[in-house]
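Continuing the batch. This is chain 6 of the set; chains 1 through 5 are on the previous pages. Same settings as before, nothing changed between runs. Recording input and output for traceability.
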Amino acid sequence: AATAAALRSLRTSPAGKQELSAWNAGWNGRQRSHKHGRDCVIVVASTSNPNGRMLSSRVSTVSNALYKRVTSAAVQQTHPQRHSTVAAAAGTQQQHGKFMQLPDIRTEVIDRVSSPEVVASAAEKLKQIGPGGRQQLLLYQLAALPIWVVSAVQLAAKYATRPGAVLGSPDAAAFQLEPPFPLEEEYIAVNGIKLHTVSPGRRRDKPLMLLVHGFPELWYSWRHQMAALHATGQWDVVAIDMRGYNTSDKPQGVEHYRLAILASDVREAVHALGHASCTLVAHDWGGLVAWVAAGMYGRQLVDKLIVMGLPHLGVGMINTTMTQRKRQLYILLFQARWLAEKVISADNAAALDGMFRSAPSGLKNLQGTMPDGALAWYRAAMCQPGAATGTLTWYRAFMEFVTVSDPQDPAWSAMKRVLDMPT
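Output for chain 6:
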């Protein structure tokens, strides 16, 4: 039904007819699928029209729906570069232009390129972003009061039954940690502090792929990607523990956790690892730092940018909704010094169990929720001396940034730039 409706829209409107004509004339790729139960693997080369844009959402809706109806098809010649990329990503071999084994990919991947008009419109809107001022800070503080009261009551209830769990010092040694692979660890000097890095095995003659984690995480978050990327033999794969996290240094004070400094840490880490630039892969909080680093240093530092779970802050600011604001109320809890530290570190960081395993933020895959052995790494990292305060100071510095920071802060300037590297 959705396919039929989209087709009618295309066939009955002048713009739709023109786009269908351009699509038919400009198609220069191949689409192939392979049956995996009810799933299909789609390999799509580039498509073009007179405006130099990719397929519109309406055409994509039609084509995607049609792809899902395909049960099997012979794999013939495809765009050579895309063919190789998909084969490498799936860990397959390529011989005589054909797949030896088709990748078992369960998610469709569609390349889209925004039109120049969309880019220009977004760039114009981004020029207007900046700190909200002291009035906005006051509103946040007023909104935080009931959250602090509720959290304090919950913490007091825990103290009444288990005072040692609340007031005792977290103990990272309480966890048995099994490395996912032989670790090549190094502490590098950046901006006057030392950061902990981990690699499955350095390949200093290969391009650097630097992996930057989020909250409340550490290098271990990237273990699966690190192993897979290292196995290709094409990258010098390194994951970093950002300042304030795990065994990296944890300077005190929000002035040490401002976005421009965190972005500078990335640049200095790349250089300390023996490279001039990198493919920067980031998630969550690391994603925000990555966006800023890409804007501050451009392609001199970032060859390619891959960000997961964190949209560009400027784009987020101009598109935020009340629903999204409600989901970010935990940031207000994290502004409460001492209280937030106790909430997150009590009982050897038991709060992380809920964060990773329970709704609405918990993780779940085909094997179930996060296993105990994996959760132990995150809890042990949060139990490192000073880690609770270090990780939470990121949020406190961020609150200052979006409210009372200098509008000329390099991070604001970075977020107003159009990035020229592949993202």
